[in-house]
């Protein structure tokens, strides 16, 4: 297991920061913001807007005006979820992070606590929150590809090992999962009962064909991330054995 980094303690617990990447979520984000406001375990809530063209930033700033833990980071152009999360990480020193999608439905403070407890109490280095009993489409998606969940609690230092190239677009979850596996970090699955979010192909506010296009684009970027991380691992292994042969 990787060595534990020193933790910054406040009120007998490590500092915890939530990072919420957002992009054109004016219809959905308010519900997540309400839950974050009601969750007392969080010390910081970093809201990263990834170049939204709708009223998302306005909603984020309104929430930040009512809770001093909230901070808004606005990226000038859409750079992808991975870059948004790395931007949020750069703005905090908290050793434990909570990552959540901005469009979650039926989320509660208890779900957030369940994601963080195993990391706080050293039973896991990263948790993966999987939807259960919320909506059959998203339940099935999480059953089929649990490594793609955006709901995570984790030790912040894990992000040091995540490939920036592979994290481009929608590749962040793949790159994060692979980094945890390669570095021997302990993972634990947490059931998020009743939670779900609209899928890209069913976002009626944007149109069916628009959603289908984004879903196809998303999976293309996920496949690219797998390729990049696997290639990087292969090249590192080849370099290691090549150097060993010279000794």
Please describe what this structure looks like.
The protein is an alpha/beta fold. It has one domain: Spore Coat Polysaccharide Biosynthesis Protein SpsA, Chain A (Alpha-Beta Complex). 41% of the residues lie in helices and 19% in strands. The chain contains 7 helices and 9 strands. The strands form 2 sheets. It has a 7-stranded mixed β-sheet, with helices on both faces. A two-stranded antiparallel ribbon has the order 1-2. A hairpin with a 2-residue loop joins strand 1 and strand 2. Helix 6 runs parallel beside helix 7. The longest helix has 38 residues. The protein is globular. The two termini are 28 Å apart.
Short description:
This protein is α/β, with parallel strands linked by helices and 247 residues long. It has a single domain, classed as Spore Coat Polysaccharide Biosynthesis Protein SpsA, Chain A (Alpha-Beta Complex).
List keywords for this structure.
disordered N terminus; Spore Coat Polysaccharide Biosynthesis Protein SpsA, Chain A; seven-stranded mixed beta sheet; 247 residues; 41% helix; two-stranded antiparallel ribbon; single chain
């Amino acid at each position: 297991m990787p060595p534990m980094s020193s933790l910054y303690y406040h009120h007998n617990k490590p500092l915890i920061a939530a990072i919420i990447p957002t992009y054109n979520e004016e219809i959905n984000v308010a519900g997540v913001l309400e839950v974050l406001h009601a969750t007392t375990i969080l010390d910081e809530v970093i809201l990263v807007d990834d170049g939204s063209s709708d009223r998302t930033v306005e909603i984020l700033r309104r929430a930040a005006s009512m809770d001093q833990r909230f901070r808004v980071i606005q990226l000038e152009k859409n750079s992808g979820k991975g870059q948004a999360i790395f931007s949020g990480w750069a703005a905090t020193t908290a050793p434990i992070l909570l990552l959540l999608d901005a469009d979650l439905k039926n989320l509660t403070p208890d779900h957030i606590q369940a994601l963080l407890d195993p990391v706080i109490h050293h039973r896991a280095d990263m948790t993966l929150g999987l939807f259960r009993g919320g909506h059959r489409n998203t339940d099935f998606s999480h059953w089929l590809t649990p490594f793609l969940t955006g709901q995570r609690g984790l030790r912040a230092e894990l992000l040091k090992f995540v490939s920036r190239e592979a994290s481009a677009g929608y590749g962040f979850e793949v790159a994060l999962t692979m980094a945890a596996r390669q570095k021997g970090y302990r993972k634990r699955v947490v059931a998020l009962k009743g939670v779900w979010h609209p899928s890209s192909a069913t976002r009626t506010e944007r149109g069916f064909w628009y959603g289908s296009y984004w879903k196809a684009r998303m999976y293309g970027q996920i496949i690219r991330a797998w390729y990049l991380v696997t290639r990087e691992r292969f090249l590192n292994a080849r370099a290691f054995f090549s150097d060993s042969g010279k000794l």
